[in-house]
User: Fold this.
Amino acid sequence: WNILLTIVSGLKIFFEYNSDDEKKYKKFVKELVAPGLKRIGIETKKDDDENTVRLRAILLALDFYAEDMENLRELAEMYDSDYEKMDAEIRTDILDAKLYLQPEFLDEYLTAYKNIAEPEIKFDLLLAMTLMRDREALVEVMKLLEQPEVVKPQDQFYLYLYLYRNPRVKDLVFDWLRGHWDYVKKMSGDKSLDNY
Assistant:
């Protein structure tokens, strides 16, 4: 499935964002992962082995890309504003789904990101914010790139990369990097950007 994830991700570049061909491709991806998700389920089970946990993560990532509304709604229903109460194995998927269906939660995510100390939860929130579908909201998230007091420099590189992968703002993120290259070099210090 890791190979499949790599192939699916690689093939995405051949489809123009929001084109009929991309929609067909998403439908294909949804049909591809549906049997696996049906077999193992969305929620983590006590008897899941490590392979099942990894497989679920890959299938949910592909399913999110495919915009499977039924699974997105099911995941969003698992949302809890006490992030530690959510199943850590699928917390990112829950946060993604909630924000996908209710983009107005962005403010809550931003506030939580600024106030939560737990690094795993912070990372899950950051990732969810970069996967939004609304360009205007993504522009708000991009502002975090210039807030090292909020997003640590090492996390800003991941923020940049995840935003760059989002076709809705890829152009803006690339322009931001070009316009802020000296800032990025200063932030990275003696660390190579290749590390990211």
Notes: The longest helix spans residues 20-40. The two ends are 23 Å apart (CA to CA). The mean pLDDT is 92. The chain has eleven helices and no strands.
